[in-house]
Specification:
single chain, 20 helices, Leucine-rich Repeat Variant, 2 domains, mainly alpha
Length: 406
């Protein structure tokens, strides 16, 4: 299962330990032979599965010491087949985590059993193997694997397919320079929204005055959190009493004007903030056509609040409601703009954790995998371990659904 990428080797450590502690030498030798193949396949993933290899190593690194200790104990087994298989597996193990990382485990053999030490090192992957093979091939006259392919002969076009001659002055012109996009612009651009035109500020001001009384609007901007909370609850009651048509007609006013202006989706009081998210989620689920621009107003603050224990659940709920109406790809695209580079690593880690859960709930249909992997590469380079772990979780959930094609 591990060779197919279904289960990381680190998760199989207990089962492998049980098999290698068996009394039957043949069972131990066969287990070590399988482990050697699994380790070699893990370390030789193709570039297309590069991210899978990275997060497999992250998981595997936690179990590096138990694996090394287990293999070294098998090298001292009384059965020759077991010792031979253990040396082969240890060489593959060295190829996975690096020669310098495994040398401390076999230093004792250098003093007590130099022959065994040299034999173990002979199984380590050679860095100069390809260069040696190339040189050997050249010296013996045999073709090497890195030969440059010969271009096919150029055939002259027939008179029927020949194009008119181009003046020399035109052919001498250099082609225009190709402007390469910056790393921030590498992500696929979102398609243009089909949302209806947004109302003007004057129109939203007039609608807000007709929806809410002056006292409620004053309370929304109050410094007293209890008054702000009461005003937001009044807005929630107003939305609850509206018909579906009225909600659709006033969704821009309520989300992008009233609640965004005062108290705002980043209110410092947890109860007020949770209630504003609740109203936004209520509107998202309660209209036939929810505009993307409304979600874009709420998402940045919701992502930030994911890192706050008191607001984590309300923020997650409103983001999930947007995924239900607009699809996870739109929400992920907004998240890519702020979360990976946020100055607070807890926000980035919490956002990635939410992404992993969303992929588990919604699947990967409609999600642009190339964009997702590009962002996860950036996150895996972060110094904060929580960000790396959360990025690994996102890749694992994606891999479960996309399979080896990822």
């Amino acid at each position: 299962m591990s060779t197919n990428g279904c289960l990381p080797l680190a998760d199989m450590l207990d089962d492998i330990t049980t098999a290698l502690n068996a009394k039957n030498p043949q069972a131990k030798a066969l287990t070590l032979q399988w482990l050697s193949r699994a380790l070699k396949l893990t370390s030789k993933q193709s570039y297309a599965l590069d991210m899978l290899r990275i997060f497999t190593r992250c998981r595997f690194a936690k179990a590096a010491k138990p694996f090394a200790t287990l293999l070294v104990s098998c090298m001292e087994d009384s059965a020759g087949d077991v010792r031979e298989a253990a040396c082969t597996a240890f060489g593959a193990f060295a190829g996975l985590i690096g020669e310098r990382a495994v040398l401390p485990y076999i230093e004792k053999f250098e003093q007590t059993n130099k022959v065994m030490f040299d034999k173990i090192k002979s199984f380590f992957p050679s860095v100069t193997g390809s260069a040696t093979a190339s040189a050997t091939g050249s010296a013996t006259g045999q073709p090497t694997t890195n030969t440059v392919p010969v271009a096919p002969p150029v055939t002259k076009p027939s008179a029927a397919t020949r194009r008119p001659s181009v003046p020399v002055a035109e052919t001498a012109k250099k082609p225009p320079a190709i402007k390469r996009p910056s790393s921030a612009a590498n992500l696929s651009s979102e398609p243009k929204s089909n949302d209806p035109p947004a109302p003007s500020d004057e129109e939203m001001e007039a609608k807000a005055a007709s929806l809410l009384s002056e006292s409620v609007r004053t309370q929304l901007a109050s410094k007293d959190w209890k008054e702000r909370l009461a005003a937001v609850e009044n807005v929630a009651s107003t939305v609850e009493s509206m018909s579906s048509e009225d909600r659709a007609a006033n969704v821009d006013v309520l989300i992008c004007f009233i609640l965004d202006k005062t108290p705002g989706y980043g209110d410092v009081n947890a109860q007020v903030c949770a209630k504003t998210f609740s109203v936004a989620a209520q509107l998202a689920r309660g209209v036939a056509r929810f505009p993307k621009r409304c979600a874009a107003v709420v998402i940045p603050n919701a992502i930030t609040k994911l890192a706050e224990p008191k607001n984590k659940q309300p923020a997650s709920d409103v983001l999930t409601s947007f995924c239900e109406r607009l699809g996870p790809q739109f929400v992920f695209a907004q998240l890519y703009k702020t979360a990976p580079t946020h100055k607070n690593p807890s926000v980035t880690a919490a956002a990635l954790t939410w992404m992993a859960q969303t992929i588990q709930d919604f699947g990967t249909a409609g999600i642009k995998i190339a964009d997702l992997i590009s962002v996860m590469k950036t996150c895996l380079e972060a110094t904060n371990p929580k960000i790396k772990t959360s990025a690994v979780d996102v890749l694992i959930e994606t891999r479960k659904r996309k399979g080896p094609s990822m």
